[in-house]
Amino acid sequence: MSTPARESERRSRRGAPSRARHGVSESMANFGRGFQALGTLAVDGVQVSARATDLATGKVLFSVDDHVVMPTAGIGTVLLLIEVAARLPNAEFGALTILDRTPADSVGGSGVWQHLQAPSLPVADLAALVGGLGDNLAANVLLRAVGLAAVQARTEQLGISHTALLDLVRDERGPDHAPQLSVGSAQELTGLFMSLARGEVVDAATSERVIGWLSLGADLSLVASAFGLDPFAHRGGDHGLLLVNKTGTGPGVRSEAGVLRGPRAGVAYAVSMSFADTRLPLRLAVLDGMRAVGLDLLEYVH
C-alpha cells in the first residue's frame, strides 16, 4: 500500500497535477507526463495512438485515439509467431523442422541471419530470431512456410479486425505491394498482449511459446527505454520488473506493444506514432514522447 510520502514523491517526479483537469480522467491524470508529451507531438503533426490497460482488472489507464488504425511495421510479425506456435504440435511442422532460406526471402534491415553463413535453421530458432531481434529474413522464411493467408485467417479467428500482417518484409515497396508491412490499433494490440499474457491466444501452450519468443526482445529503444533493463538479458526480471514487448520501426513509423509487470501492478500497453521523418529533431522528439509514456508505465507498476 502506497504511503502519502511515496505518492507525493510520484507526483513530484511526474510533474503533473494530482487531480484530473480539462476533461482528463483521474486515471489518465496519473499518466500526465505521457499525455502531455503525446499532445505536444500531435500539435507538431505527429499522428499518435496509445493505450494502457491494467493487467489484473482490465481497467483502461491511458488512452489516446486508441481506435485509430496505424502502421505498426514489425509488430505485425507477432501474428506470424502466433500461427507458427499454433502449428508446432503438428509433426510435419515441429520446432526442429529445418527451413531453408532462398534468394526470394532475402531482405535487409533488422536481424542477424542475413549476416550468418548457416543456410538453414529450425522453425523454433527462426521464431526466436523474429521475437528477439526482429529478424526480417527469418520472418520471410517463416511466412513462406505457413503462408500469409493462414496468418490472416488465424487473425480473423482471434476476433482481430483492425490489426493485420499485410505482406512479407521488403526492402522497397512498389505500387503493387501493400503500403505497409502491418497495421494495428492500440486498442486491439493491448488486448492481444493481455490475452497472450493470460494464456488465452489459441490455447495456453501457444500463448506460452509466443511469450517466450517475445521475451527475448532486445529492442528497448522506444517505450521500454524508460525501464532501465538490460536489452540482452531481462528474461529473469530485474528490480521486480518483467517485460515482454515487440517493436516496429520503419520510415516515419515507431510503434511498440507489450506487457510490463512490476511489484505493484502489471500493464498491457501499445503506442504507435506516424510522422514525416524529414528532420532528426522530430524523430528524437518522437522517441522522447515514447519514453515519457514508458516512465508513466514504470511509475504505475513499480
Question: Which labels suit this protein?
Answer:
disordered N terminus, 10 strands, 5-stranded antiparallel sheet, 302 residues, Beta-lactamase, 3-stranded antiparallel sheet, hydrolase activity
Word description of this protein:
Helix 5 (123-133) packs across helix 6. Strands 2-1-10-9-8 form a 5-stranded antiparallel β-sheet. The chain has a 3-stranded antiparallel β-sheet with strand order 3-7-6. It is globular, with a radius of gyration of 19 Å. The protein is of the alpha+beta class. Helices cover 38% and strands 18% of the residues. The protein is built from 10 helices and 10 strands. A hairpin with a 2-residue loop joins strand 8 and strand 9 (253-261). InterPro entries: Beta-lactam/transpept-like, Beta-lactam_cat, Beta-lactam_class-A. This is Serine hydrolase. Keywords: Hydrolase. One of its GO terms (molecular function) is hydrolase activity.
